[in-house]
Amino acid sequence: LDLSNCSLHSVPPGLAEATAAIVLDLTENPLTTLPSGSFLGFIHLQSLAVPLPLECPGGRDAWQEVTADSSSRLCQGQRNPCNTSVELAWPCPENSLCAPDGPGLFQCLCDKPFHGYKCLREGTFPMLLFGGILGTATVSLSLLLWGTQRRKAKTP
User: Fold this and answer.
1) Which residue ranges run through the membrane (predicted)?
2) Tell me: the pLDDT tens digits for 107-149?
3) Assuming Cys at both sites, which of 25, 95, 137, 141 could form a disulfide with 49, CB separation 3.0 to 4.6 Å?
């Protein structure tokens, strides 16, 4: 994806839809910063060229090789943050796995059959119990209101 020399002052919001990009060129743009979430989901990105004043997203540790020339910085070979020898600041909770989510970013995915907050709930949502209770409450309340309000209805 070549966005070089497009007079971009900030990362375009539509860039979030290009998560399948492998090569991205942002050089020759007056960009001042790269917001931390700009490359969320870019797990396939292997080569990123940014203007020289900017650092590679995720820092030097997120890339295998970072080179700079007179006008641009080239970040190559995105590293998997889950396979580092450095201990993660926020490790994934029990019953979950770490998965890459862009340069220097990761997400925690729950193992089956766990789900919910911090992967603490096991099994599936009790749909039958929920539907039964909701249906019973709805029918009961409807009958109660019909019975109490029936006397106020006028018959023709």
Assistant:
1) 125-146
2) 999 998 898 888 888 887 789 999 999 999 999 999 999 888 8
3) 25
Residue 45 lies in a domain: yes
Buried b (16+ CB within 10 A) or exposed e, 119-137: beeeeeeeeeeeeeeeeee
150 dihedral zone (left: phi>0; alpha: psi -120 to 50; beta): alpha
Question: Does residue 136 fall inside a structural domain?
Answer: no
Is residue 41 predicted with pLDDT exceeding 90?
Answer: yes
Q: How far is CA 62 from CA 27, 57, 74, 82, 103, in A?
A: 19, 8, 13, 11, 6
Q: How many domains does the chain have?
A: 1
DSSP states of 27-54 as a string? Answer: -SS------TTTTTT-TT--EEEEETTS
- Residues 62-70: contacts with CB under 8 Å, at least 24 apart: 62/103, 62/104, 63/103
155, HSE (Cβ side, Cα atoms, 13 Å):
2
Q: Is residue 63 part of a domain?
A: yes
Domain that holds residue 50: 13-78
